[in-house]
Amino acid sequence: MATRTELPVGIDGFSNEPYYDWNDPDNVEHMERAIEKVRGELGRTYPLIVDGEEIHEGDTKDSVNPADPSQVVGTFVQATRPLADRAVESAHEFFESEWKSTPVEERAEILFRAADIMRDRKAELAAWMVFEVSKSWSEAVADVAELIDFCDYYARKMLELAGEQEVVDYPGEDNELRYIPLG
Fold first, then answer.
1. Residue 29 CB burial class (10 angstroms; 0-12, 13-18, ≥19)
2. d(CA 179, CA 9)
3. 54 HSE (CA, 13 A, CB side)
4. How confident is the chain (183 residues) per 10-residue block, as mean pLDDT?
5. How far is Cα 4 from Cα 99, in angstroms, rounded to an integer?
6. What count of other Cβ atoms lies within 10 Å of the Cβ of residue 85?
7. In terms of C-beta density within 10 A (0-12 exposed, 13-18 middle, 19 or more buried), how is residue 65 classed?
8. Helical segments of the chain, H only
9. For position 168, what pLDDT does the model report?
10. CA 17 – CA 121 distance, rounded (Å)
């Protein structure tokens, strides 16, 4: 089987993630199961994660269902200014030490894997949006599909741009175009 980085790239190799056809009872049942799974997970407290460290202490804030403000979707630990500064510094350090030297094929593969994970969990992710931002089922599934499309499309574009690029010849010049990933 070909790896994702060997697939056709560019617009010709890309196709949009399909939405659910709600006339198909299997899709309705799949979404209903996802709604019930997420309903069972509502109200949890989520730590703040900075530089890989889970932070459980500090002020918290509830995220509530806009359609039912008495329903707490989740509670999260709020960042302080020093923690936000630490997160930015950590991201910058990672960029300088690791990410900027990561080959484009590895970066693209990360996006392809993210798209695959979201594709496998599309109904569950959509169900979270139903509760957290009061999306309809169709809107929520469309939003997840759009995110999958972004990951697939930009991974393909990265690979395309990393390859040899056609440039217009101009008499007396020897031109080439190279993609240099900067971040």
1. exposed
2. 15
3. 5
4. 48 79 95 98 96 95 96 96 96 93 92 96 98 96 96 90 79 77 65
5. 20
6. 12
7. middle
8. 25-39, 81-97, 104-120, 122-133, 137-162
9. 79
10. 13
Q: Which strands sit side by side in the sheet containing 68-77, from one edge to the other? A: 44-46, 68-77, 60-65
Tell me how crowded residue 38 is: count the other CB atoms within 10 A of its CB.
Answer: 20
| pLDDT, tens digit (0-9, with 9 covering 90-100), for 21-31 | 999 999 999 99
Can you tell me which residue has the tokens 């169900």? 127
pLDDT of residue 171: 85
Count CB neighbours of 170 within 10 A. 8
Exposed (0-12), middle (13-18) or buried (19+): which is 106, by Cβ within 10 Å?
Answer: exposed
Q: Read off the tokens for 155.
A: 């991974």
pLDDT of residue 174: 80
Q: What is the DSSP letter of 9?
A: -
50 DSSP β-pair partners: 53
